[in-house]
């Protein structure tokens, strides 16, 4: 999974991200901006009725998404971590310092999977869908030290460690040994590594924050995507969308 995350980061090029607004402007469209195109279809004679209908449907969907669950500005910090959003991408980065010489970097996906769990209660039947987030936690002590990389799963209420890697970025090793499956490690060793992350703020509370953050980011990206499609239909540049 770590290789998948690394590869996806290198190959994922979002055209929209090149033309989104910078950090000094809001990425969340206002109600007024969402309604700007309503007069557009009537004053541009070259837009066909078919295209005008598509634009109208897109506008209705944008309004619905914005009114049903309006997104808010993404958080810029969480506890000791600073949060760096990646507009137009399926990623987010968090950074923190621990002690005098440790740098912590977390790279996390948007929702990338789910699991079915039984509904709570003795009389309940059926299953609930629980969303999954993948994250890489890199802990570095500076040049000359290998990095520890934890591949984790963030569920809504708890953190699971999948793998623990030792990375020497100054030395290329062909087919390195990446360590055992965390779930097959000795129980005491598992607890020790969980406590190690817990002391650095990588814990169940962080999982709850990530799920709330990604739920909001998902709404932002959806509204932006719908706006980009609408802009193309109108023959506008993407940097005019939802501003």
General description of the model:
The protein is an alpha+beta fold and 243 residues long. The chain has two domains: 82 residues, no CATH class; 137 residues, Mitochondrial Matrix Protein, Chain A, CATH 3.10.280.10. It contains six helices and eight strands; from the N terminus they run ααααββββββββαα. Strands 1, 2, 3, 4, 5, 6, 7 and 8 form an eight-stranded antiparallel sheet that branches. A hairpin with a 4-residue loop joins strand 7 and strand 8. The longest helix has 31 residues. The radius of gyration is 22 Å and the shape is globular. GO terms for molecular function: translation initiation factor activity. This is Transcription initiation factor TFIID subunit 5-like. It comes from Hibiscus syriacus (Rose of Sharon).
Structural class by secondary-structure content: alpha+beta
Q: How many angstroms separate the termini?
A: 36 Å
Overall structural domain count: 2
Total helix count? 6
Q: What proportion of the residues is helical, as a percent range?
A: 25-40%
**Major sheet:** 8 strands, antiparallel
Q: What is the overall silhouette?
A: globular
Roughly what is the average pLDDT, rounded to an integer?
Answer: 79
The CATH homologous superfamily of the largest domain is named Mitochondrial glycoprotein
Beta strands, count: 8
GO cellular component, one term: mitochondrial matrix
InterPro entries: MAM33 (IPR003428), MAM33_sf (IPR036561)
GO molecular function: translation initiation factor activity
Protein name: Transcription initiation factor TFIID subunit 5-like
